[in-house]
Amino acid sequence: MRIGVDVGGTNTDAVLLSGKKVLGAVKRPTSGDVSSGISEAVGALISECDVKPGEISAVMIGTTHFTNAFIQRRELVPVYALRIGFPAARGIPPFASWPEDLKTLVCGGSAMVPGGFEFDGREISPLDEAAIAEVVTEARAKGIGQIAVSCIFSQLNADHESRAAALISELAPEMEVSLSSELGRVGLLERENAAIMNASLRPLAETITAAFHRALEEQGITAPFYISQNDGTLMSADYMQRYPVMTFAAGPTNSIRGAAWLTGANEAIVVDIGGTTSDVGVLTGGFPRQSTVHVDVGGVRTNFRMPDILSIGLGGGSRIHEDGDTVSVGPDSVGYRLLSEGRVFGGDTLTASDIAVASGQISFGDPERVADLSPALLSGARAAISHLIDDAIDRMKTMPGDIPMILVGGGSVLVSETPRGVSEMMHPDHAGVANAIGAAIGQVSGEVDRIYNIADSEARSEAFADAEAQAKADAISAGAAPDSVEIVNIEAVPLQYLPGGATRVVCRAVGDLAMAE
Amino acid sequence: MISAITLDNIEHLAIGSSFLGTGGGGDPYLGSLLCREAIAKYGPVPVISVDELRDEDNIFIAAAMGAPTVMIEKLFSIEDQHRAVTTLERFLDREASAIISAEIGGCNSMMPVAYAAMRGLPIVDGDGMGRAFPALQMTSFNIEGVACAPLTIADEHGNSVLYQTTTGLKAEELARPVAAAMGASVCMSCYPMTGAQARGAVIPKTLSGAVAIGEAISLSSDPRTPLERLVAALRGHEYYKDAAVVFQGKITALDRDTSKGWVFGNCSIAAMTGSETAELQFQNENLLVSVGGRLRCVVPDLVTIVDLETAHAIPTERLAYGQRVAVVACSAPPLLTTARALEVVGPQCFGLDEQYIPLAELIEDLI
After folding, report:
1. Chain A residues whose beta carbon lies within 8 Å of the beta carbon of residue B307
2. Which residues 6+ apart lie within 8 Å of A238 measured at CB?
3. What span, in angstroms and rounded, lies between the C-alpha atoms of B234 and B238?
4. Which of A336, A371, B297, B349 has its CB surrounded by the most CB atoms within 10 Å?
5. How confident is the model over A258-296, as pLDDT tens digits?
6. Contact criterion met (CB below 8 Å) for A315 and A274
């Protein structure tokens, strides 16, 4: 049996899964210390399901804690950015693209030292180890404990980054090193930003890991725990301490993956309706469709693997506005105050949830308090809600034609009719805790993103074989059971303007977590 | 006209030059970061109009050349640009008195600004395309008889190579393999000219035009929509003035082929209400658009797909099914529509069968 936990900004959800069955689900408020909220939710779950802590084989946790900390500029530490690749790229130094407030908080200095690679693997310059030693001395003098290392074309060849890391650890064993090649893909600035963000969150990651440990220990659970990553796969607690940024988009990813698991669908639109916003994503091949554009987090440009999500201002707490004959819904919302401000809960604000109650789609609160709403207002509000959903679905589709849709999230009662462009609307049991389910069913993955010289079809097969082997090895080292690992995606993009068949190959392997079930 | 490029209007230049990129020209984002660094260090860049140039002035081009996927790794450095220009200066025994962009549309609007900041030289309010084009010979400089060569390229290690060729086409052909050997992201200078030559061969007012377009799109204090402000800014410009939204709708089909080094393809856009559709053809840049079978704009006139809400240009590689877009067309500078110019940048140069018809005639009912 496994437990999935989703630590959101408002609620902490926990579910218990055995094979393909959901044995139970609970919701508890998220606590300020993270730990007690998880402990309570997990405690309630195991007592409700009447299982012993020793029967749990693994706990999977999804959290938005690091994303929120970065966006709200909380608990970040200064980082020294070391870029390898001089004399190339020197016109745009590290931190050049950062918002001033964040730069003040996080920038603990930067240097550009000789080293790095060309697109075809040649060295730009030999790695200058003496220059790195100077950086270590400088960072130490400033009292900086985090170094983010980036290197030109390091996703093609990570050698200079790993040599720099080894040297730093040798000279200053107390310093922690984040490597860009382990975090991002092609695009030096974005990959470097990911490494800096990661470094700035590492002390917090240590605190959170300890909080997770404590929460499970309190409930007598000794099984290992894993954390959800951006792409819906899992990482170990050790790994999260080193790579906290890999959790940045885990929330929406888990809800899409949970929706897939609950319905068995592989290709669908997933609409997750919360209290304030709805997230619309696309499930393709069993995984969320990834965003192809740069993603800004807290004003910093990154190129993480992030799901392609459209957020719209529609949720259970969305306010209803009347202007003459026109009725509109949101984007403003009473949010978590729905339970005190919503009309059916005794408040004065007319919300989307009140419309659902008055229309008989759901019963909660006091229906008498919305009995006076005019049929015109109700139908107008329902039409406005439908329009928002229809529109969002249409924007996320990549092909004409109808497509299945899965409805999840606490606010899913708002939708009563099948939206336009949808062939079949699925609203599975436990849709309200799809997020925690998504965490519980996480697999482990490995990915390769590098440039090969592909001159002919033989070179192409060799490059693909190499990329596949590398991706599988990565997945296994991340904890996958070797016989379950398969390649889920491989694509080759020839690089424009370059002779000699330089081609970027991206390959991804996924497998089940190796554990005693 | 603006008097200088500063930290305050560099973002406007980036947004405006993306619009003039007509779907291509490259993302000006990295270039704008380079400009920010350079302006913060060396100060704002004075803008000089083509009319103010003296006959004996020496105008030099600053440009980046290479593969976009490599540029995002190796970024740019002004020092390398400096080497490309000084190599050319030494060969010609002339010293630059102003810097100019070869291509205002897209990323090559930026490097010249950063480089002019470093040299303490003014930047000319003009360029060689007034938009973006895929090849080095497709410039007003070439059309008006300025030679592309001598051309120089430089890498980050202190290496520079000078090409003395008979044609611009040959210079480009010879430079590409060397640029790849240098790491596929190099700095370049070409089309060196005097003030006297520049006066007839430069398309004037495109730098200030790009800033005005970008400012109009981003000016949120104005109650009009960004799209209305964009069209108003175009209509206020000396040559982009025949301008209109020729269609609004949603992208319903997209066909892109990147196999031959260029992005070839076409895109269908359907009206939100009604059954009318628009068809767009592109080769890196957008080439022509027709609405309900009626031709609405053909190269060298400009057509750009913009986001319906923000009016920000959407480059060809980022077009996607379902996007809500407006198709905005505007007239090309007169230097690009002469009989001589159409032999270099007309529809036939892109393999199109359509003859060039001035935009003013094609959108008469919309302006």
Report:
1. none
2. none
3. 8
4. B297
5. 999 999 999 999 999 987 788 999 998 888 887 766 778
6. yes
Average pLDDT rounded to a whole number, residues A415-425: 90
Dist. CA B38–CA B28, nearest whole Å: 15
What is the pLDDT, as a whole number, of residue B158?
A: 94
- B69 contacts in A (CB within 8 Å)? 119, 186, 495-496, 504
Question: What is the rounded distance in angstroms from the CA atom of residue B290 to the CA atom of residue B309?
Answer: 22
B112 within some domain = yes
Residue among B34, B67, B262 minimizing CB distance to A92: B34
Domain boundary residue among B153, B181, B204?
B204
Domain count, chain B: 2
CATH 3.40.50 fits domain A79-201: yes
Cα A15 off chain centre by: 19
The pLDDT tens digits for A17-66 are: 998 899 999 988 777 788 888 999 999 999 999 999 999 989 999 988 88
Q: pLDDT digits over B56-74, tens only?
A: 999 999 999 887 778 889 9
For residues A129 and A33, what is the distance between their CA atoms, to the nearest angstrom? 42
Q: Which A residues in the span 185-204 are in contact with B, Cβ-Cβ below 8 Å? A: 186-189
Same domain, B179 and B250: no
From B79, which residue of chain A is nearest by alpha-carbon distance?
Answer: A91
Strand, coil or helix: what is A187?
coil
Both B38 and B124 in a single domain?
yes
**Which of B37, B180, B321 has its CB closest to that of A96?**
B37
Q: Residue B88 is encoded by which pair of tokens?
A: 């050319």
